[in-house]
């Protein structure tokens, strides 16, 4: 591409695109840095953790007696942990849609018909995943009260683990999953379905939330698998994040989704009969 012959609008679009990509990358890196910091606190040097649980204090994971009830502060810190984790795992897969919004917004501004800032769209998307983080935090609290999670925050019950795996495997084949996946795979289809962009801040936020809802519909069952492999298991977190990204960006994403569903179903049934 010959930047010397770019029009002023093309130069601005390229600059803005670089800013958005850098912002997305920075947000993702910061989220993963936080996750890595918390995960480092899960290594207790071979210490016997029987009778204890792990809880976030905001900056690292700390041990607490298993029977000690969560405080309001504990709940808030665990919610923050889940919310940041969802940012690190899901924002990269939303990058194409965010970039399209930003580019279209800049072109509209050049025509004196500006959109709301890209941040409004991104905030709507993140608000949906923050809602999921709230549900996940509540589920973790309930499972810990029932003594169904290990100190590493993984299922200790084969029935629970098997049911989650089977449910996730079956969901990969459901029409709802495929419908949500198709919206995530094709930003243009998503925009057309909504009848175009929304110019105001409220409309942009709602559009981002709608995209987030489709993304949630596509990936919530995969995120529930964290309770099987371990909420702070870095390998498991990374594997799920990469799979969610590949599912949306690869041409064979639907096939990948269904093949993974078969694998999850088989693993779940095996766990249930053990």
From TrEMBL:
Keyword tags: Membrane, Transmembrane, Transmembrane helix
InterPro entries, sorted: PpoB2-like (IPR018688)
Residue ranges crossing the lipid bilayer per the database entry: 18-40, 76-102, 114-139, 159-176, 214-243, 255-273
Protein name in the entry: DUF2182 domain-containing protein
Lineage of the species this protein comes from: Bacteria, Pseudomonadati, Pseudomonadota, Alphaproteobacteria, Hyphomicrobiales
